[in-house]
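Our preliminary data section would be incomplete without showing what the modeling component actually yields. Below, a chain of 235 amino acids is followed by its predicted structure, encoded as tokens that our downstream tools consume directly.
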Amino acid sequence: MTRDVAIATMRLGRRPAVVAAGGEADLDALVVADAADLLELRADLFAAPSPDVVRAALGRLRTTGKPVLLTARAANEGGRAMAHDLRAELYRAGLPLADAIDLEIASAALAAELVPRARSAGRSVILSAHDFTTTPAASALRTLVARARSLGADLPKLATHVATLDDLHTLLEVTLAARAEGIVTLGMGPLGPLSRLVLPAAGSLLTYGAAGTGTAPGQLPVGELAALVTRLFPS
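Predicted structure:
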């Protein structure tokens, strides 16, 4: 039996939940992403991110009534460069307006601060790892999942570069092994679009689409992704 996982009032697992992802240039598209189940605000994708700017953007997204995820991605895992202290400040400022936060497994010091804050505020925590060049061996990915859980993640999340069917098979293997406890897996690159449907079929609880310009290689437009999920995964 799969462990009960929720973000805000949304229980995950009945079918894959579709996340519309975007940054500053995509705010208008996020607000009208009616097909999405959740919205992800990438605070690192702002020209001049600040606590006030992020709070205002989260406030706009909250008007949709959808659960909101807050991410300020580290530069070495695909985000825009910013000082560690500013990243921490953005998370602290945005936490009261977000339903979940996503930060890197590798950002252990930041996780040590933010996971207890999120717990106290009743927010969910996604701890993630991103590899834009390859798909590591399944054993290495399982180690990352275990590390995320030890740091207090509600959901470990793995995103890797998927160029071959062997890469996709590796992510499938890890997803199937971890699905009982809750897992999110994504492929980026040539087979990224296919992975956004195949991995949910194996148990990935979330799948991400682009609200506007996109936040990672391999994202389908969120409306297209949501239509496929609706067709392929009955309620």
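The domain at 11-230 is CATH 3.20.20.70 (TIM Barrel). The CA atoms of residues 171 and 185 lie 7 Å apart. Preliminary results of this kind motivate Aim 1 of the renewal.
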